[in-house]
Design brief:
By secondary structure, this protein is α+β, with helices and mostly antiparallel strands. 28% of the residues lie in helices and 20% in strands. It folds into two domains: 46 residues, no CATH class; 85 residues, Arc Repressor Mutant, subunit A (Orthogonal Bundle). A three-stranded antiparallel β-sheet has the order 1-2-5, with no helix packed on it. A hairpin with a 5-residue loop joins strand 6 and strand 7. Helix 2 runs antiparallel to helix 3. The relative contact order is 0.13.
Length: 158
């Protein structure tokens, strides 16, 4: 379960997922495994009971959700604008954490652990892609802190 929490994405019941490939369920080299989900033919994740008492389900290919699924460039630009015009910090323990801005824009709750993990994964990606960056400067108490600023990311570089 810890593995799934680190991914910061909503996962259906783990018991309904499996992975492997067509060659004896082995992953070869750098290839990624193919994920599958146990799905009932009527579209529900529960099995169907046939008149003779048997339960039937089918295995279908399934894509692992990514932290940025559902995030648009409008969301990104809104966060960059807030970073440009505000005094937001990189530290998640701060009351002025940039994650609160992300939560507000995406309609997430920083008190919810799953939402919090998703926010952290989004920010990690955006800092890695230079969508956001940090500048070290003094806060109101004259202590050096990392403040979030828009990065040198460029849409033309995609």
């Amino acid at each position: 379960m810890l593995f799934l929490r680190v991914l910061a994405v909503p996962i259906p019941s783990v018991r309904l997922l499996c992975w492997g490939d067509a060659q004896q369920g082995q992953v070869h080299g750098a290839e990624r495994p193919t994920w599958h989900r146990l799905e009932s033919p009527n579209g529900f994740t529960s099995r169907i009971e046939l008149p003779n008492g048997d339960h039937v389900a089918v295995v279908e290919p399934w894509q692992f959700p990514l932290p940025l699924d559902g995030i648009t460039t409008q969301h990104m630009h809104a966060v960059r604008e807030k970073a440009r015009t505000g005094e937001w910090r990189k530290d998640s323990k701060s009351d002025e954490w940039i994650g609160h801005v992300v939560a507000e824009i995406l309609g997430l709750d920083t008190e919810n652990e799953d939402d919090l993990n998703k926010i952290k994964a989004i920010l990690k990606t955006w800092f890695g892609n230079k969508v956001l960056d940090t500048a070290t400067r003094k806060d109101d108490h004259r202590k050096q802190r990392q403040f979030v600023i828009p990065g040198n990311w460029n849409e033309d570089s995609l």
